Amino acid sequence: MLNAHSLVRELADARANAAPVPIPPSSRDSGFDVSTAYAVECEHARMRLQSGHKPVGRKVGYANKAMWRILKLDTLVWAHMYDDTVHYAEGNSADLSLAGFFSPKIEPEIVFKLKHPLAENCDAMAALDAVQWLAVGFELIDCPYPEWKFHPADFVASYGLHRGLIVGEPQRIDPSRIPELLNQLPSFKLKLLKNGELIEEGTGKNSLRSPALCLAELASAIHRRSDATPLAAGELISTGTLTTAQPLAANETWEATLDGIALPSLTLRVK
């Protein structure tokens, strides 16, 4: 059986040295499942806190029920984000260096900031009532495993593949806007452009039918785990990609533009 502390060290060393992990944990230990992986994720959070880095929120993975059936999941998965991995774009644009990355990819997502905790089994309206603001963001993911081949347990253990989150201009949610947002969040359109060329279009439905429903499902999934820290006021939640993850390379400029919801575009320049 794999030791959580040793595995965290292995994954942290691999990231620090940009050295791939040749064999994912689930391929080394047949008993390494999602529950076991959360023990690794928890140990990682403890060690990061001990080293002076504060968790500031969670990122979501597998926000697609069709994937649950294929991968034998009963809910989405998550991992912590930290004060040194989350950054706010200035003027809705940011720069990124790929130094130290394995095989980076970019995912456009809706980001929420919580103003109070969520109850278990809440609906989309109750989820939005707990939100202070929303923004579009770029989740930066990186896979230490060869050819991006892994199982959900490996995803959780390796911090949800999280390397960074770039957050665009936040838009405060006034309670009077919630009914409007309930309609907009499932239906808005997003265009993902690279160097001015359209790469893919996405929609809010790609995040568990709505980013608000994704937030509600995350709260319930965390409530069902006795070993998980409940969502808290002030946390940022990145609610899953709205397009397929796209590979990143130096000297590229990425832009996310939205239609059908009042969120400004976000630009990322890759160095």
Topology:
Layout: H1 4-17, H2 25-28, H3 34-50, E1 55-61, H4 65-71, E2 77-82, E3 86-88, E4 93-96, E5 105-114, H5 124-129, E6 131-141, H6 152-157, E7 162-167, E8 171-172, H7 178-187, E9 189-194, E10 197-203, H8 211-223, E11 236-241, E12 246-247, E13 252-259, E14 266-270
Parallel strand pairs: 1-11, 3-7, 4-14
Antiparallel strand pairs: 1-2, 5-6, 5-11, 5-12, 6-7, 6-8, 9-10, 9-13, 13-14
Helix pairs in contact: 1-3
Description:
The protein has 271 residues and is of the alpha+beta class. It has one domain: Fumarylacetoacetase-like, C-terminal domain (Fumarylacetoacetate hydrolase, domain 2, Alpha-Beta Complex). Helix content is 28%, strand content 31%. It has eight helices and 14 strands. It has helices at residues 4-17, 25-28, 34-50, 65-71, 124-129, 152-157, 178-187, 211-223, and strands at residues 55-61, 77-82, 86-88, 93-96, 105-114, 131-141, 162-167, 171-172, 189-194, 197-203, 236-241, 246-247, 252-259, 266-270. Strands 1, 2, 3, 5, 6, 7, 8, 11 and 12 form a nine-stranded mixed β-sheet that branches. A hairpin with a 2-residue loop joins strand 9 and strand 10 (197-203). The longest helix is centred in the N-terminal third of the chain and has 17 residues, at 34-50.
